[in-house]
From TrEMBL:
<keyword id="KW-0949">S-adenosyl-L-methionine</keyword>
<comment type="similarity">
    <text>Belongs to the methyltransferase superfamily. L-isoaspartyl/D-aspartyl protein methyltransferase family.</text>
</comment>
<protein>
    <recommendedName>
        <fullName>Protein-L-isoaspartate O-methyltransferase</fullName>
        <ecNumber>2.1.1.77</ecNumber>
    </recommendedName>
</protein>
<keyword id="KW-0808">Transferase</keyword>
<feature type="region of interest" description="Disordered">
    <location>
        <begin position="83"/>
        <end position="157"/>
    </location>
</feature>
<dbReference type="InterPro" id="IPR000682">
    <property type="entry name" value="PCMT"/>
</dbReference>
<dbReference type="InterPro" id="IPR029063">
    <property type="entry name" value="SAM-dependent_MTases_sf"/>
</dbReference>
<keyword id="KW-0963">Cytoplasm</keyword>
<feature type="compositionally biased region" description="Gly residues">
    <location>
        <begin position="110"/>
        <end position="130"/>
    </location>
</feature>
<dbReference type="Pfam" id="PF01135">
    <property type="entry name" value="PCMT"/>
</dbReference>
<feature type="region of interest" description="Disordered">
    <location>
        <begin position="1"/>
        <end position="36"/>
    </location>
</feature>
<keyword id="KW-0489">Methyltransferase</keyword>
Amino acid sequence: MGSTGGGTRSAPDAAERVARRQGTGRRAGPADPYAQEAAAVRTGLVREIVAGGGLTDPAWRAAFEEVPRHLFVPYYFETGETEETGEAGETGGAGEASAAGEADTDGRAVGDGGAGCDGRAVGDGGAGGDGRADEPGGASATGEGGGVRGTVGCTRLWRDDPHPLRRARWLAGAYADVPLATRVRDGELITSSSQPSLMARMLQALRVRDGDRVLEIGAGTGYNAALLAHRLGEAHVTTLDLDPEITEAARNHLAAAGFRPAVVTGDGARGCPLHAPYDRIIATCAVASVPPAWLGQCRPDALILTPLATGLITLRVADARHAEGRFLATPAYFVPLRGSGPPPERVPTCGLPSRPLLDDSFRFLLNLAAGHLEPVEALALWEHEGRPGRERYGVTVRGERQWAWLDEPEGAYGWPLGPPDRLQSFV
């Protein structure tokens, strides 16, 4: 592809090259009428991610160059003010608005995993309203392809739209560096496909090695699993989701792209012992504390990467009861792991001045220490310690105890993990 010095290549050529090089057993999917055009816009996405400092690992760059994202988002939704005509496609360019206001282009992209993730916001889902994976349905505020007259609603873009301009917008949006809302139910966003640049940062931070076995918590559209299968081979990848509609859709999307990793329906907090032990676990939904089952299904020296509070924690696993690590500097706003209890309440901010609340590093501390530090205490700590960024915080797991800390595990500042009052992230 152009980003690597070669010419534009079609998806079938890329598939054959990957299969020969990695022995993934990748099979040719159905004929893709968008393959050639998609390869060109995919090149632009990769260049954009690289220009932003991502995809420094050539293996991950190759995966993003060759795995066709548009096969995993056969339709998605835009939100915004619709035209009085009610015609779909009148709310702006593809990817302009996304995730019903949950995550936009400021990097606050949210999960790529649907079930196993809370259904109230973002993840990366698949099936439409009738449960069939690639139908363009899925209840939305706009009805069947149109807009709600004169109101804020959703506009569906899909690959089989009879209007060529809307099909072009769908394809362009599939390769925009934004999250894409992929499931809407009763006017409420259920899941989305994550911002590709955030996916790239997370995958690279996973530090996989050839031969590693990876468990993904939150199957979503299957796109992230396809990237992992491209890098490691499909036999080394298991992706899990709570919602059978989402796993069915992900399985179909993966097959269309020529990948067949293990796609399992189950509770993300319990992991997937069937294919354990794992060298890496990556979650695409936030946890309040690290599920013990994850550690128990890891090999010694495994790495777990999961959203926690509004950050990404990387934990090095010593054994089934011990792990420790630090947060990445990257902000990450994901929805909670589904099935882990009742919805959390919002983090209180009463009595705080407005200026600190505009600072992302302070909001991170509010979330991390929610229920254990009063907001005014959090503000005093944040100012006294020089407004620390996420990378100064970490998490330790020792048996039944889990805690977050600033600078050192046994240092002056630490807070038990787990939601005593089930407070919701302040965003």
